[in-house]
Amino acid sequence: MEDKVRPAVLVSACLLGVCCRYDGGHNRNEQVIALKDRFRLIPVCPEQLGGLPTPRIPSEIRDGSVFAEDGTDVTENFTRGAREALRLAELFGCRCAVLKARSPSCGSKVIYDGTFSGTKTAGDGVTASLLKKQGIRVYTEEAQKFGDEDIC
After folding, report:
1. pTM
2. How many domains does the chain fold into?
3. pLDDT digits (tens, 9 = 90+) for 15-60
4. What angle do helix axes 126-133 and 75-92 make, rounded to 10 degrees?
5. 3-state secondary structure 87-118
6. Which of 66, 98, 108, 147 could disulfide-pair with 128, CB 3.0 to 4.6 Å?
7. Which residues are CB-neighbours of 11 under 8 A, at least 6 positions away?
8. 38 is in which domain, residue-wise?
9. Does the residue 84 lie in any domain?
10. What is the SS3 assignment for 28-81?
């Protein structure tokens, strides 16, 4: 009898406790980590995959581009990281992703508005947007309950 392979889920590495946030910290989330019992978790940090260091200057999306707080345009790094995250999602057959809320890479439906004031606006991060365009379902760690629904 063959062992059934668990579906793969792309996950923001910071949610798994990897210190890859812009400030060198993480956003460890036990609810997300618990998904390991039902899914193969594929950790990614699109910003690192795009060539940005950790720690790094915070970035936000403004007028369709991504800018670091010091005014540097880092759109290409974010785009490269999104493409790499998509490549990994395709390689592992991920049909869904759990990404960090409000991030300029990973945010889904709501992101910061580009003023570095903490103000939020409707929109997707660069990676979340690309994944959605390719038919991959995107959730954030703030989704109500992963256990109540088969997310993939």
Report:
1. 0.93
2. 1
3. 999 999 999 999 999 999 999 999 999 999 999 999 999 999 999 9
4. 40
5. HHHHHHCCCEEEECCECCCCCCCEEECCCCCC
6. 108
7. 32, 35, 41, 42, 43, 44, 97, 98, 99
8. 8-140
9. yes
10. CCHHHHHHHHCCEEEEECHHHHCCCCCCCCCEEEECCEEEECCCCECHHHHHHH
